[in-house]
Prior knowledge:
Layout: H1 2-8, H2 13-34, H3 41-60, H4 68-123, H5 133-138, H6 157-195
Helix pairs in contact: 2-3, 3-4
Amino acid sequence: MLLGVxxxxxxxxxxQLVVINLGQVLIIVALEYFRPVKExxxxxxxxxxxxxVYLLVLITLTDINPEAKLREQLGISMLxxxxxxxxxxxxxxxxxxxxxxxxKLRLKSLARTRKAKVYQRDKQQIPPAQKDPLQQQDxxxxxxxxxxxxxxxxxxxxxxxxxxxMGQQVVKxxxxxxxxxxxxxGQMIDAMKGMK
Length: 196
């Protein structure tokens, strides 16, 4: 849009300035009303407002303003506006990088502590009375087992629902496997009775 206005209305500078400024105001209103950006919306709005201020200062640098001294001061103020906007954007980017690094370090720390808890739980001996008799036959030496935690998912409502559904599926599969094992054991017992 901006290029079209600049090219098509190059002979009508006043109309160009009005259309460009009106378009910029419409962009700012649309950003606030429709909210197309979820993260960093404040920064996007800040940038659009600074572009509007930049355009208003840019108007005064044209031949509309005949005083050279005033144009020089307005040029310095434009440099300040550009520098200020750049500093705000760079500091926001650095802040986001620091937040991401903190989150990754926190997740690694949680994974390490969880891995240690799993290791301690697996290392503990379970009394023989609590063990399943079928597992006692196949059980070998209790080795130290590390279970890697690949990803820790945030505790959101969707995650809880998904894990509950997955948990129900796992329980159903475990029940089916247990029933299958019980049937096999029953068949083996029947076969042994038949041999006697």
